[in-house]
Amino acid sequence: MPSMTMIQALNSALDVMMTKDPDVLVFGEDVGYFGGVFRVTEGLQAKHGLKRCFDTPITEGGILAAAVGMGAYGLRPVAEIQFADYIYPAIDQLISEAARLRYRSAGQFSAPLVVRTPYGGGIFGGQTHSQSPEGLFTHVAGLKVVVPSTPYDAKGLLIAAIEDDDPVLFLEPKRLYNGPFDGRHDQPVRPWSQHPASETPEGHYRIPLSEAAIVRPGSQATVLAYGTMVHVALTAAELSGVDAEVIDLRTLWPVDIEAITASVRKTGRCVIVHEATKTSGFGAELSALVQEHCFYHLEAPITRVTGWDTPYPHVFEWEYFPGPARLAAALRQVMES
What we know:
It contains twelve helices and twelve strands. By secondary structure, it is of the alpha/beta class. It has two domains: about 5-200, 3-Layer(aba) Sandwich (Rossmann fold); about 215-335, Rossmann fold. The strands form two sheets. A seven-stranded mixed β-sheet has the order 2-1-3-4-6-5-10, with helices on both faces. A five-stranded mixed β-sheet has the order 7-9-8-11-12, sandwiched between helices. Strand 5 (about 145), helix 7 and strand 6 (about 170-175) form a beta-alpha-beta unit. It is globular and about 60 Å long.
């Protein structure tokens, strides 16, 4: 199989689906001629035409409103919000319209749309280009939320999202676009071209929007992670000396509670890591689920390792991120509890 970066894998997924299904449209700010600020949509307009891949005005609410109408009409729109930080003007369309349409219309209409957006920190983008708002959207009934951590997963999950008959928010970790990081500083572990997880088929394949992946088997503690933090967790497990099982959630909602439950019941300990702020973050929901399903199997309190409860601190970006050292310390501490 060829080696791809996450950018190339996402581009391949869009190309495959636009070729396979003429109802798939790709649009957003600068996604057409320019190919997107991160070049995820590069070449799609030239190959599939101006009516299939096109630019929009700078109006996030308008982009999502158009996508809802297209989906209700029978098309399969893939709308890009240039940065997750810009999605807030479109929240009403995404939550009040897209996520509610099937229920509100008693099944007469649906919104089979995908909202792609780069999210998270790690590119020195400051407060308005680095946010991790996934917790706001996992709260929304009727909306699926996906976060890939490898090129292979990114392509398979995006294809499954486009083929899904309901709205999907597809969060793309900017920090992983061109290679995985270990979280110590801003240095890549190795480029995707040298990483086994970069092997990605050129054709069509799907990864179900409900299945987590055990990326590191272990017996002493369970680490729940997604996106960039999967790579941080793998490094932290090696540093800690703890035989930790690392689970990549892949889809945050619907979450794979069966995989989580089986792992925590086996290990008896659970550490949750994400780069979003701690208070009311998705880790709180995961902690509640683990407590409800695994109470009698827990040997220690559930631990969360997260970003700070502050606006995104540009100057202290790498201190704000949960790095391997902080996560490794949490793993050692949970073993002593």
